[in-house]
Amino acid sequence: MRMRLLLLGGGSALGQALIRQGAEEDIGFLAPRPPEQGWDAASLTLLLDETRPDAVINLAYYFDWFQAEQVSESRFAAQERAVERLAELCQHHAVVLLQPSSYRVFDGARATAYGERDEPLPLGLRGQALWRMEQSVRALCPRHVLLRFGWLLDDSAEGAVGRFLRRAVRGDELMLADDRRGNPTPVDDAARVVLAVLKQLDCQSPLWGTYHYGGHEATTALALGQAVLEEARALRAIKSEAVVAQAHAARPDTGDEPQHAVLACKKILNTFGVKPRAWRSGLPSLLDRYFRHI
């Protein structure tokens, strides 16, 4: 890898997966520890001036964007300002910006898979913030890659999978929508995709733009929960016996979570040669890491 890579959010689940996989291929990242208050416009300005990387992978707010149950509007507003500043800095220093985003930029009103050309119409605060960040990146930094991921699954204790497993171990009632669909995407698979994109960019390929990626085989939230529960039983005593089906409309997060969140992934395959990987194959290692670390 000729490019000097700056990884913001190296301590996040996706950041750690990137560092692990990069090390296997002799790809290193400059992954600075964030300031105590987190990355903001001022600290990012100083960082890029000092490090002068060739590419920035922005996972600075990974947990809030992909795993947190709720995030305040003021917190998202501060992150938007920081991303806007980062995009300006990347353009000023001629740095490539790889910015993650999400299926949440769509409202989930249509049952067919969303492509990159479909018009975003986010539902909740998180989707709206991510969409505004996308627009900032496009407007301010032409040399960008926006990667929209499906349902990201990671091994963090407070992430979506972690919250589900904690309740399962306790024996709480588990309810998930049987009419909500998406592409589960284990964090290791997402890291594989980011590395594949970086390798192409390292070859000076000007493949800027927006791309979708989600694990192979779209499924329902209910079926995903059942698969996680089944894998977890092999590793830990689970008191909850089953996942109960519930309608999307009855779920407490229906105002924020799109009912139909399946992403079409042909563009990333045709451009970067990235083939979708079956999400089920990533569950055993993900759950093993989760139970080893809690």
UniProtKB/TrEMBL annotation:
Swiss-Prot/TrEMBL catalytic activity: dTDP-beta-L-rhamnose + NADP(+) = dTDP-4-dehydro-beta-L-rhamnose + NADPH + H(+)
Signal peptide feature range: none
Limits of the RmlD-like substrate binding domain: 3-290
Cofactor note: Binds 1 Mg(2+) ion per monomer.
Listed InterPro entries: dTDP_dehydrorham_reduct, NAD(P)-bd_dom_sf, RmlD-like-bd
Keywords, sorted A to Z: NADP, Oxidoreductase
Enzyme class (EC, first level): oxidoreductase
Family per record: Belongs to the dTDP-4-dehydrorhamnose reductase family.
Protein name: dTDP-4-dehydrorhamnose reductase
